[in-house]
Amino acid sequence: MSELGLLSAAQAAEKIRAGEVSADELWTFYRERAAADDLNAYLWVADEPDAGDGPLAGVPVAVKDLFCVEGVPSYAASRVLEGYKPPYTATSVRKLRAAGAPVLGKTNMDEFAMGSSNENSGFGPVENPWDRERVPGGSSGGSAAAVAAGSAPWAIGTDTGGSIRQPAALCGIVGLKPTYGAVSRYGMIAFASSLDQCGPLTRDVTDAALLFRHMVGKDPCDSTSLEFPEEVALPTAERLDGVRFGVPPELTGEGIEDAVKAVFEEALAKIEDLGGELEEVALPHSPHAIAAYYLIAPAEASANLSRYDGVRFGTRATDEDLLSMYEETRAAGFGAEVKRRIMLGTYALSAGYYEAYYGRAQRVRTKIADDFRDAFSKVDLIVTPTSPTVAFKLGERTDDPWAMYLADACTVPMPLAGIPAISIPGGLADGLPVGIQLAGPAFSENRILDAAYALEQAIGFEGGPWRDG
Ligand code: GLN
């Protein structure tokens, strides 16, 4: 691996500013690596850098395929959108470009962000660079694999129920899901609008803070976005003295595999070594999070995806007559998981069942948010494993949606409550990375990043395949 590939994104930006590395040189290095990617992590790679000057100074960023980029194929990895080139660019991407970061390419993902393994992509699965027979996680699997393999210095993805944190965990990198509203959703192809949030996937916590800093802010094009109440700081904490960490038994016990538990226990010991205090806190409704999520997210998806009918975007299966056009376009364009969710969501929203399913799930969602509020009256942050297991084998769960859904058991409660959470590498179990998750109250990203940074230094994770070139 050349010197360039060993630099973190923040270090690369620094060197470009100091004139020690040229933006062209860095672009060429990553553009070649992205073009040579053999993990199926990329669906499209840019030819030329497209950003101006700025604090991120020529450090290219890989972008999940569901971010609209003007004139660039943006399919959310769905065949139904094949051929679609948006006439505008997502606010988050526009902001990163304005800060100097050019778009390196579009990364593979589960179709419309529905999945935990990247096997639901309309363009084939992504391989995990730690073990090519295993999944990289999902739905931001391409972004995570690209960063872990060193074909991108950093990337952005989206998280609706875990899609930034879970692939980050399975690929041994850092993933931050921000507070709902902290980053504009404008130009993100919608899955479940009350949950979707974009954020960084990076090699380390400092890079996550730096990328996040240039994404936040209120956007007139997204009425649910909010001004971030403080400056996003680069983390510096070395100790955790006085920081209270809640350990919820509901998300740290049953269902977590032993090897993951062992790495998690080590992380807890490190937190105590650094002066942090551990305390058990209850999140009594979190065991119902998956059930509530799989009503709310499909319900919203069924409405959001009704627009793909052959009229306005992407493919059209037939011109014969209107009804056949709708039916055949949707039958041919959507994959099995997307169809499953449209049916589930349509059913849950139907007049006779709305109260029994959707209404009830919304009440559970409120209870989950209340649990977190109670917990944060006692502790500053909550710590759990990010994923119950390490990366599983390709094909292992494709015939069992329920087993697949459980991959997000530890990550789904946070987006239901709208709160931020980060995953950082905690170590290896049988040679595969294990993620540690830290969550905090809305807009506590600075506290989360600081604590994650202190813990990251103590863990001293060596980094992944990107080190070996
Ligand atoms: N795996 C979850 C799902 O399939 C979460 C996906 C996401 O966060 N986009 O819905």
Q: Care to count the β-strands? A: 11
* Bound molecule kinds, no repeats: glutamine
CATH topology of the domain at 3-240 and 441-468: Amidase signature (AS) enzymes
Number of helices: 15
Query: How does the helix and strand content classify structurally?
Result: alpha/beta
Q: Termini distance?
A: 4 Å
Main pleated sheet:
11 strands, mixed
State the CATH class of the domain at 3-240 and 441-468: Alpha Beta
SSE run: HHHEEHEHEHEEHEHEHHHHEHHEEH
Report the principal-axis shape: globular
- Write the CATH architecture name of the domain at 3-240 and 441-468: Alpha-Beta Complex
Helix content: 25-40%
Uncertain parts? none
Query: Which strand order spans the largest sheet, edge to edge or round the barrel?
Result: 1-3-2-4-6-5-10-11-9-7-8
Approximately what portion of the residues adopt beta-strand conformation?
5-15%
What is the CA-based Rg, rounded?
Answer: 21 Å
Average of per-residue pLDDT values? 97
CATH superfamily of the domain at 3-240 and 441-468: Amidase signature (AS) domain
